């Protein structure tokens, strides 16, 4: 019977909603796990957009700073800007996603149980 609930999309306990995967499962080998995580960076929510924003900002600041300073100094500014922008945008994006998940949980909790049962009965009668 748990299979029919999973197929119908009805969640009995909103606290059991799984979080999206943050990459491949750990094997315990640091080098292997690091490489596999780097390969699957696109699967991490918010990672792609955060890294792209950081790269664009770092290149821009590095280029502007490079017009008036030594290339090593400009590179340092660019790397610092990349790190700060990437981490900050990743933090705010994950915070926004977590807030949306919390609102979804609250909406599911407030949804009357009768309505959920009625939808489940309608799906069972149409499929069976």
From TrEMBL:
Keyword Membrane listed: yes
Record keywords, A-Z: Membrane, Mitochondrion, Mitochondrion inner membrane, Transmembrane, Transmembrane helix
Signal peptide extent: none
Cellular localisation: Mitochondrion inner membrane
Family annotation (InterPro entries): Cox20
Predominant localisation class: mitochondrion
GO BP terms, alphabetized: mitochondrial respiratory chain complex IV assembly
GO CC annotation terms, alphabetical: mitochondrial inner membrane
A Pfam family annotated for this UniProt entry: Cox20
Residue ranges of the region described as Disordered: 1-29
Ribosomal protein keyword on record: no
Family statement: Belongs to the COX20 family.
Listed name of the protein: Cytochrome c oxidase assembly protein COX20, mitochondrial
Organism, scientific name: Favolaschia claudopus
